[in-house]
Amino acid sequence: MIQEVALLHIRPGQTADFEAAFAEAQAIISTMPGYLRHELQRCLEDDHKYVLFVWWETLADHTEGFRGSPEYEQWRTLLHHFYYPFPTVEHYQQVLL
Amino acid sequence: MIQEVALLHIRPGQTADFEAAFAEAQAIISTMPGYLRHELQRCLEDDHKYVLFVWWETLADHTEGFRGSPEYEQWRTLLHHFYYPFPTVEHYQQVLL
Questions:
Q1: Tens-digit pLDDT profile for chain B (97 aa)?
Q2: Domain ranges of chain B
Q3: What is the ipTM of this complex?
Q4: What is the pLDDT of residue A97?
Q5: Cα distance from A26 to chain B (closest Cα, Å)?
């Protein structure tokens, strides 16, 4: 299992519209192969900043499966215009200590 | 419940030492009032980058309680010398959609 971490900066004044669009978009990602679960979280220090976590079975489920799918075009159309600058997306795996 | 998110960049060649120090340090944070749980995760795109998640009951449990405690000095001594640059630490709360 890997965790996608996307730090999202929303354009000024557009957070309510972004959250409404995300409520619609989350139905898209939730159907993708390898998708496990997701969380959208709002930053307490900056109310235009969010972090999106998506848990995937494998890295390729996100980077090849989802990003290469027709559904990704719908996701992009719904969400990408809210972001400025364009988000950094990275993937993490738990260190067991 | 709030989630602390700390993006950590470890100095070159020091990741094994950092993980060993973190294994010791996590015993410190786990005893603090308001602490719920934590995860250390390693970035798949950059093996010197980590993210530390700590779940706290309230923001003040972290920013006032832990950071104002004698235990924080031990934590800092164990870990802070591994970080360059010094991490950005923010707090997030789940958006329920």
A1: 999 999 999 999 999 999 999 999 999 999 999 999 999 999 999 999 999 999 999 999 999 999 999 999 999 999 999 999 999 899 999 999 8
A2: 2-92
A3: 0.94
A4: 84
A5: 9
Radius of gyration for the alpha carbons in chain A, expressed in angstroms and rounded: 13
Give yes or no for B51 touching A (CB within 8 A).
Answer: yes
Dist CA A67 CA A91 (whole Å)? 14
Tokens representing residue A56 in the block: 């995937």
- Locate the chain A residue with the closest alpha carbon to B50: A92
Quick: pLDDT tens for A39-52. Answer: 999 999 999 999 99
Q: Report the residue from B39, B41, B92 with minimal CB separation from A51.
A: B92
From chain B, pick out residues whose CB is under 8 angstroms from the CB of A46. Answer: 90
The whole-number average pLDDT for the span A78-87 is: 97
pTM, whole model, 2 decimals?
0.96
Closest to A92 (Cβ–Cβ): which among B19, B22, B51?
A: B51
CA–CA gap between residue A95 and residue B46 (Å, rounded):
14
- Of 3.40.50.1000, 3.30.70.100, 3.40.1050.10, 3.20.20.70, the CATH number of A2-92 is 3.30.70.100
| Contact residues on chain B for A10, CB-CB shorter than 8 A | none
Q: Residue A94: what pLDDT?
A: 97
